[in-house]
Every structure is written in structure tokens, then in C-alpha cells.
Specification:
This protein has helices at residues 3-13, 86-98, 115-132, 149-156, 171-177, 183-206, 231-245, 272-287, 292-295, 309-316, 330-334, 341-350, 358-364, 368-371, 389-397; strands at 42-46, 52-59, 104-108, 138-142, 161-163, 218-224, 249-254, 323-324, 375-377, 380-381. By secondary structure, it is of the alpha/beta class. It has two domains: 3-270, Alpha-Beta Barrel (TIM Barrel), CATH 3.20.20.70; 309-397, no CATH class. Strand 1 and strand 2 form a beta hairpin. Helix 4 (149-156) packs across helix 6. It binds iron/sulfur cluster.
Length: 412
């Protein structure tokens, strides 16, 4: 099989992994220009220092020996198969790089033969790139759960980011849909990467020439909607992962139905709004000081598809509102719908020199059409309605989609 055919098969097969998001951009090169934005499998990602880089996003192989029920590459599917050799993969990457198509590589793989063999092939590829081709660009490598920890540790010394996909958010889900995947193996591989990151960082403080290990950190992906796991289970799992393994990111991927199987839910399309709510909640965990247990509980185990999680929390906790803008502490300001991290910081700084008026809040960037129901300013309430859920809720829904199939924006 020609390498170009392998590229077509294996870049298409990589699209279900969202740990590295696709640009979807299509733009041809122009005379005198360098590079184009539509080569098969090219996507964009962000490095640790915030740079946006274009990556070749591809599988090493889709010839899988596992039979995960939800996956297009499962052994029992009749689908075109292809595998690279480490030389082919390294040559392809370096040629794309030299032509300025890409700045880096996002390499994942199905399980060929077994976990160790697959990890060895991936390791060989990144070693060839780094040593033989002296490739210095960004590499994000999938670690194969259950592979020998020495292989994963060695790979970590050659790449910028690693990820181990959990995919299904519970052990029950794994048993049902991916019986060969084991929770202990997945968490064991994550723990191995996490402890190496810490150890290498500590050593670098003492010995300057200690090599770096996965300097851009590790991430994972959770599939949303393939199993009956509720949002509370998912967001609690994410919270634990951030805490236990210092993950850089948890990515949420709305389940895309590709196989027919009685074990799979019958969905008309991927649950994109649910995916969006989980991203918003994840943001609240990481930057707004919320705990998973505050966002959802046994009584309400799933996010409201019509309201963002922060507005939902505020409506369930009206007893703490309205808050006085000129006195509330930073963390409380962050809990007001319509006030983000930037505007909360600006409020705290601005009020040091004098009390803020309602008009000042507009200039600061507060989204007053949402915040007005939850604040007072110089003691005055500007909501114009009673502080009751049934009164406020319809006003917060304005402009929101109630259609469960539509992708929504991340921010107000
Ligand atoms: S291990 Fe499972 S999810 Fe991964 S490629 Fe193979 S069948 Fe698909």
C-alpha cells in the first residue's frame, strides 16, 4: 500500500480523538506563501507556553486487536486497515515539516498485536524523529495503557505531551463496551507519567542538565454519552484526575454513533450540548474555585442543557445573593453569572481606589444582562424583579439553545 493511502486511512481514523482538536480549516497555499491549511490530518493545538501549532494528527495503525464496541477500528469491523513502520512515520513527519505543512506531530495508535509491541513501535518512531532526523518540533504521543512502564517512561523523554485515554468514565462502562481495557492499567500508566513529571522537575532544580520529561504535561479524553454515566460521575472523575495526576486537560468527546450494537445507546446524533456543559463545568473547576459536589448532586446528577453550570448553581443558591460588588471577596465575585476571571480581577483592583458604580461595571466588562439579578452596587439592586428562580431563570435563558443537538459558544 502506498504511504499516501495509509495517510488517508490513518488520518481519517484519528478524527475521533479530541485530545488534540482539529482546525477544520481549508486554505490553499498562495504564490509566494509558505504552507497550506488543508493537508489531510492537519490540526491545531496549543503548547505549554500558549503558542498555537499545526500538527499532523494521525494513527500509527488502525489494525486493532481489541474489540471496543463503540469504536470504528474494532477488530470485528470490516474497515480498510493500514499500519506505518516507524521509518515511514518518521519520514512522513519530517517531510511534512520540511514543506512547512506542520510544526509537530500528534501520534496515537490502535493496539497492534499487544500493548508492548504497539508502545515499542511508537517509541521507535519518536526516537527516529528526535535522533536520526534531529526533529525538534512538538510531539504529542498517546501512551498505550498496560504497556511496560519502562517503554512509557522512555517515550516520555522524547515527547512534549503524553496522554492516556480513559475513554469510558466508569469501570462498569469499560466492562460493558471495552472489556480488554482495565481501569488499573489506565490509571497505572497515568500515575507513571505523573510521577516521572514530578521527579524530573525536582531533579532539574538540582541538576541543570537533567532531560525534560513530558514538559507540556499529560491529558486524557472521556467519551460522553456512550454509557449511562451521568454528568456528576464524569465531572467528579475529572476533579479526581486533576488532583491525583496533575493533568493539564481533560477533553470531553460527545459519543459519535458509528457502530450498531445493542450495548450502545440509540442516539440521533452526538450529545454536543452535554459535551459543552462539561467543558464549562471543567472550566469552573480549574479557574473558578468550584468543587464538583457543588455543581451536581444526587438530586440533580446531570447539567441543565438550557443553562450553563454557573447560572444553574446560582439559581440553586439564591440565598447567597445578591452580593455587594464593592465588598464581596474575589471568589464570591467569580460565582456571579456574568462575571468572569478578568472582570472579577478588575473589580478587586478598581475598588481599591473608590467604590464602583453600576456604570463602572459595564466598562470593566461585566455582562450586566446576567449579573444584574445577582448583585447590588452601592447597596442598590438593579435586577428589577424578585430574587426568585422562576423570575430569573427565563431571563437567563434568553439567547440560549434548548435544542439538545446544537453546539453552543463557550462564553457569554
Ligand atoms: S483499543 Fe479499542 S478504542 Fe482503541 S482503537 Fe482499538 S478498538 Fe478502538
Amino acid at each position: 500500500m502506498e504511504v499516501s493511502d495509509k495517510v488517508n486511512i490513518l488520518s481519517a481514523a484519528a478524527k475521533y480523538d479530541v485530545s488534540c482538536s482539529s482546525s477544520g480549516s481549508r486554505r490553499k497555499n498562495i504564490p509566494g506563501g509558505v504552507g497550506n491549511a488543508s493537508v489531510s490530518g492537519i490540526c491545531h493545538s496549543w503548547t505549554d507556553d500558549g503558542r498555537c501549532v499545526s500538527l499532523l494528527k494521525i494513527l500509527f495503525s488502525n489494525d486493532c486487536c481489541y474489540d471496543c464496541v463503540y469504536c470504528v477500528n474494532r477488530i470485528s469491523n470490516d474497515t480498510p486497515r493500514a499500519s506505518f513502520s516507524p521509518d515511514e512515520m518518521a519520514d512522513l513527519t519530517i517531510n511534512f515539516y520540511r514543506r512547512n505543512y506542520i510544526e509537530g506531530l500528534f501520534l496515537s495508535s490502535a493496539i497492534i498485536k499487544n500493548e508492548d509491541y504497539t508502545m515499542e513501535q511508537l517509541l521507535l518512531t519518536v526516537k527516529k524523529l528526535r535522533h536520526q532526523h534531529r526533529f525538534n518540533g512538538y510531539i504529542h504521543l498517546k501512551a498505550i495503557p498496560g504497556a511496560d512502564s519502562r517503554l512509557i517512561s522512555e517515550a516520555g523523554m522524547h515527547v512534549d505531551r503524553m496522554s492516556v485515554n480513559i475513554e469510558l468514565p466508569s469501570e462498569k462502562g469499560l466492562k460493558l463496551l471495552a472489556p480488554r481495557k482495565k481501569k488499573e492499567q489506565i490509571l497505572g500508566s497515568m500515575g507513571n507519567i505523573s510521577s516521572n513529571i514530578v521527579q524530573f522537575k525536582e531533579e532539574r532544580k538540582v541538576f541543570k542538565h537533567t532531560p525534560s520529561f513530558v514538559p507540556a504535561g499529560q491529558s486524557t479524553q472521556l467519551i460522553v454519552g456512550a454509557t449511562p454515566d451521568n454528568d456528576k460521575n464524569i465531572i467528579t472523575l475529572s476533579e479526581n484526575l486533576y488532583r491525583s495526576f496533575s493533568l493539564k486537560r481533560v477533553y470531553y468527546s460527545a459519543y459519535v454513533p458509528v457502530n450498531d450494537n445493542p450495548k450502545l445507546p440509540s442516539l440521533t446524533g452526538p450529545p454536543l450540548v452535554r459535551e459543552n456543559r462539561l467543558y464549562q463545568a471543567d472550566w469552573l473547576l480549574r479557574f473558578y474555585g468550584f468543587k464538583a459536589s457543588e455543581l451536581l448532586d444526587e438530586k440533580q446528577p446531570n447539567f441543565d442543557l438550557q443553562l450553563d453550570p454557573k447560572a444553574g448553581w446560582a439559581l440553586r443558591n439564591l440565598n447567597v445573593f445578591p452580593v455587594e460588588i464593592n465588598r464581596a471577596d474575589y471568589l464570591m465575585l467569580l460565582r456571579v453569572p456574568g462575571i468572569g476571571v478578568k472582570s472579577a480581577k478588575r473589580i478587586v483592583i478598581a475598588r481599591r481606589v473608590g467604590s464602583l458604580s453600576y456604570d463602572d461595571l459595564k466598562k470593566i466588562g461585566v455582562v450586566l444582562k446576567r449579573a444584574r439579578y445577582f448583585i447590588t452596587c452601592r447597596g442598590k439592586y438593579y435586577g428589577g424583579i424578585n430574587l426568585r428562580e422562576d423570575a430569573i431563570r427565563p431571563r437567563l435563558l434568553d439567547g440560549s439553545s434548548s435544542n439538545g443537538d446544537v453546539q453552543m459558544t463557550m462564553f457569554d
